[in-house]
Amino acid sequence: xxxxxxxxxxxxxxxxxxxxxxxxxxxxxxxxxxxxxxxxxxxxxxxxxxxxxxxxxxxxxxxxxxxxxxxxxxxxxxxxxxxxxxxxxxxxxxxxxxxxxxxxxxxxxxxxxxxxxxxxxxxxxxxxxxxxxxxxxxxxxxxxxxxxxxxxxxxxxxxxxxxxxxxxxxxxxxxxxxxxxx
Length: 182
Description:
Helices cover 53% and strands 8% of the residues. The chain is built from seven helices and four strands. Strands 1-2 form a two-stranded antiparallel sheet. It is elongated and about 90 Å long.
C-alpha cells in the first residue's frame, strides 16, 4: 500500500470472514490484527456496492435493511398520494367560488374550516382529538379564511400585472396607500 502512496483509513476499513460459526471461531485467535499500526477485527456485516454481506452469507441483514427501506418509501408514497388526492378532491373545491365566500358569515367559514382541518388530520394521520393547527402547518395549508383572501389577492395581482382578463381588469382600480410617517 505504501509503495502506491495509499494510506489505510482504519475508520473506513471493514471486512468480514465468511463461513460457518465453527470455521470463523478457528480464526478468532488471530484478531485483533495490527496492520500499518491500526488494530482491525472482522465485522459481522459489511456493506459494498449497495449490498450488505453477513458472515454467514445468508443475506438476512441485507433483506432486513432492504425491507425497512422499502416500507419507509411505501409509507412516504402513501402520505404523498394522500396529500395529492386530498388536494385534488377537496382543496380544489375549496378554491371554487372564492369571491362568493369572501363575505359570508364566519359561522359558515368555521364549518368549511372544520372539514379542512379534518382532511389535514386524515392526510397526516393525526388523532381526531388533536389540535388542527400542526397538521395544517405540516401540509403548508392556510386556514380557510386566509386561503380565500390569498386566492382573491392572487387573481387580482395576476389580472393587474398581465391585463389579460379584461372583464376583471376593468373592475379593479389601483389606490395608492398613504402611510403615516414614523
